[in-house]
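Review form for a predicted model. The reviewer records the input and the model, then writes brief findings.
Reviewer: anonymous (R2)
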Amino acid sequence: MTTSPKTPPVWLAWLPVVATLFLIGGFLLSSGGKINELAEHERRLTALETRRDSDADKLDKINERTARIEAKLEVLVPTGPAAKGVAR
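Model under review:
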């Protein structure tokens, strides 16, 4: 009785190919997640920059108004050495 050499199963020959495909698929999925995360961060940064610019404009308007109010107060209520001399 002669025995023939055992041949490996057919699926074993495809194992490296299947493993490589899974590896590439996982890489693509994780890359897609990173790309989406990057896009989300970019959107949030743009929103923050826009908000900062509008806040800066509001502060400029407040500073201008405060300066006008201070100028009116200086006219109405003089301060300094001249005002002290007038009060005496």
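Findings: The chain is about 85% helix and 0% strand.
Further findings: The helical segments are 10-76, 81-87.
Recommendation: see findings above.
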